[in-house]
Amino acid sequence: MRVARNADELRASFDRSSQEALEAFGDGTLYLERYVERARHIEVQVLGDGAGNILHFGERDCSLQRRYQKMMEEAPAVILSEAVRRRIHQAAIDLLAPIKYRNAGTVEFLYDETREEFYFMEVNARIQVEHPVSEAICGVDLIQLQLKIAADEPIGLTQDDIRPRGHAIELRLLAEDPARDFMPSPGRLTEWEIPSGAGVRIDSAMFKGAMIPPYYDSMIGKLIVYGDDRAQAVERLQLALQDLRISGIGTNVPLLKAIARHPDIKANHIDTRWSERVLLPEFLSNIEK
Q: DSSP readout, the chain?
């Protein structure tokens, strides 16, 4: 894969890339796609009843990632204009309605903030880790709605019934040790004290004394906060992290605290490579000190 920023670079890269593809795969065919320098990852939560009726539950901004894995998700994506928001919702519906999609799902897009254009990436035909933020702003239980669809029961909602309000943010709690290059950290939890209060939700099966095995995904919980607006949600996120106590294993909580208090998060100046470019160099340098 090569980035060409002008016609000369395109000419130079084309032959070289084609030759490499031919040697590696026996086929020198290439395809071109737009390179988005600083992209946002925007996705639309949908639900289909199998009869061509598709509901959307707003969009999520999942741009904060590490090694292409989501770390923080929020809804709505306040970076979008209302015109773009309507277009991206309709694009998700138009994609799934003709195939009579049946289930919860997520239609994911790459968003170019400069051009205000979005590009389709994929459909995840399932419920996803970050669905609680959509539930929070829409006041629905997506799992319950999935079960209704599976039981051939009517969903009981129209698009007009779904009125997103407020702002929600989710952080993933991982059994990973930041001081050891985020290596998995299995072991027994000697302390598990979770925050509570207005607008705070924890999704987890963990408890004091629980054993974290080394065989599975490292996620041990999700912290979700809700506020009247993004500023209040960020403030509640900071307070909730202060009250979170996990001991016995290494976790990514120190990194989550660095995220919550970073000025770029407050200003919403991030993109899909922000963590590698800004957050992690700062965070790791502080660990070394």
A: -----SHHHHHHHHHHHHHHHHHHHS----------SSEEEEEEEEEEESSS-EEEEEEEEEEEEETTEEEEEEES-TTS-HHHHHHHHHHHHHHHGGGT-EEEEEEEEEEETTTTEEEEEEEE-S--TTHHHHHHHHT--HHHHHHHHHTT------GGG----SEEEEEEEE-EEGGGTTEE--EE-SEEE---STTEEEE----TT-EE-SSS-SEEEEEEEEESSHHHHHHHHHHHHHH-EEESS--SHHHHHHHHH-HHHHHT---TTHIIIIIHHHHHHHHH-
